[in-house]
Write a structure and sequence with these properties.
The protein is α/β, with parallel strands linked by helices and 270 residues long. Helix content is 36%, strand content 19%. An eight-stranded mixed β-sheet has the order 1-2-4-3-5-6-7-8, sandwiched between helices. Strand 7, helix 7 and strand 8 form a beta-alpha-beta unit. One of its GO terms (molecular function) is hydrolase activity. It comes from Ramlibacter alkalitolerans.
């Protein structure tokens, strides 16, 4: 399957012995040799929930961008109602789903200047991919990633569960997901599973070799600054950006600061 800037569609991959359709959309520059930014969404995100941020960043960086919705999200194949994710759900996205999607869209990391741009769970997935395939990336940018589980994360996710059950959150998520229950409960159930409390990827990410920019809001309600500071301890060449007056979504709370920092970082890496 070929893909060009401006195209949107659904790519089929084989995952866990089943055909899965992945929603995707291209934005940005079609110039030959332009870096490719693959956008990895948050735990309740999708292609549409990025809004215009990827296009703005790609314009500033002279890049083309690929957004996609992971299985269970957006217009991609929903999660079966009985399926419960395991503590390695982000590993499987990094090691299985993302490589399969790149292959389906004929994106070869050996030939393309490939970058990952991940937010929250998507940031963790970006880190795991960068660690598992250290020669595949030109660089990675992660916003509010998780490398271990904190009490503040669990508390906020418990509050999200209450909101989903008691407010119109399900209806609001339904604007972005074909199956809001698929998106919400897959994410919420595993994060609140006691087995997930010991999840930790600090040792694994030490294998990252590509340039890495880690961004977090000082007021992040889903994690402390120890998340990105822990990344810097494991991967000493990491550049950190701690943003004041910013919560868990720096690209929404401080979009211009993120765009300027990310575009500068991409240009500096060549």
């Amino acid at each position: 399957m070929s893909a060009s800037v401006g195209n949107a569609g659904r790519a089929q991959i084989d995952w866990a012995g089943q055909p899965v359709h992945i929603e995707y959309q291209w934005v940005g520059s079609a110039a030959p040799g332009a870096p490719v930014l693959v956008f990895l969404h948050e735990g309740l995100g999708s292609v549409a929930m990025w809004r215009d941020f990827p296009a703005r960043l790609c314009e500033a960086a002279g890049a083309r961008g690929l957004m996609y919705s992971r299985p269970g999200y957006g217009r991609s194949t929903p999660r079966p109602a009985q399926e419960r994710w395991t503590p390695r759900f982000m590993h499987r996205q990094a090691h299985e789903v993302l490589p399969a999607l790149l292959q389906a869209l004929q994106l070869d990391p050996a030939r393309e200047p490939l970058w990952l741009f991940g937010h929250s769970d998507g940031g963790s997935i970006a880190l795991l991919y960068a660690a598992a395939f250290p020669q595949a990336l030109r660089g990675a940018i992660v916003l509010a990633p998780h490398i271990f589980v904190e009490d503040v994360s669990v508390t906020s996710i418990e509050q999200a569960r209450e909101a989903y059950l008691e407010t119109d959150l399900k209806q609001r998520l339904g604007r972005y997901h074909d199956d809001a229950d698929s998106a919400f409960w897959g994410w919420n159930d595993i994060w609140l599973d006691p087995a997930f409390r010991s999840w930790n990827i600090e040792r694994e990410i030490a294998a990252i070799r590509c340039p890495l920019l880690a961004v977090q809001g000082v007021d992040d309600e889903y994690g402390t600054l120890e998340q990105i500071r822990g990344i810097a301890r494991a991967v000493p060449h990491t550049q950190l950006l701690e943003l004041p007056d910013c919560g868990h979504s720096p690209h929404r709370d401080q979009p211009q600061a993120v765009i300027e920092a990310a575009a500068r970082f991409i240009r500096a890496a060549g």
